[in-house]
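Reading a protein record of the kind used here takes little practice once its layout is understood. An example of such a record is reproduced below.
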Amino acid sequence: MAIKDWPEGDQPREKLLALGAQALSDSELIAIFLRTSGVRGKSAIDVARELKARFGSLNGLFAADLEAVSAVPGMGEAKYVMLQAVMEMARRALRESMDRTDVLSTPEAVKAYLRLKLQNLPREVFVVIFVDAQNRVLALEELFAGTLTQTSVYPREVVKQALTHNAAAVIFAHNHPSGVAEPSQADEDLTRVLRQALALIDVRVLDHFVVGRGGAVSFAERGLL
């Protein structure tokens, strides 16, 4: 049965208008995005459910490459491009929220932004958010990539960039491609070394986030700073 033939209260678009987007399931949200299935005999919700089943979650769907998405009947390059555009708009909206306010007053926005930016990357990267004396974002830079250890993340480079941006404080973040958002002993050791180096130029470390596929862990919330 086509979605337009469903009872009006069950149609995803009408349900969203009546109850808000938060009332919809993942599959219903995907169906609104798809608009039509592109497959005879299937509704958009059928294709949406197949996408959810194949990729396991919205994160899995957004992280999938063009080849994997296009393998689902009814999907293709155009819909893949639209999916990536939706993700980028979400990242930019969250970045705008961070840029306009005190990052310490919006920790969930910072965490959400870092999750969208880092959680689906295939390699480990280390980023630094540089902030001013009012804790407003000055810059966000990816400084290192690869296997992150004390020998691959150079304190002098972090110090150099903090001075370049005239930062009063920093927030660190890195991802665990394995998917487990749990700080390791090496993560704690690295944070301690970086804090000591930055203290010499009077720059504070506000937090360090470890991002995995299941979420993000804050060192500050864990009492590790």
In short: The first strand starts at residue 125 and ends at 131.
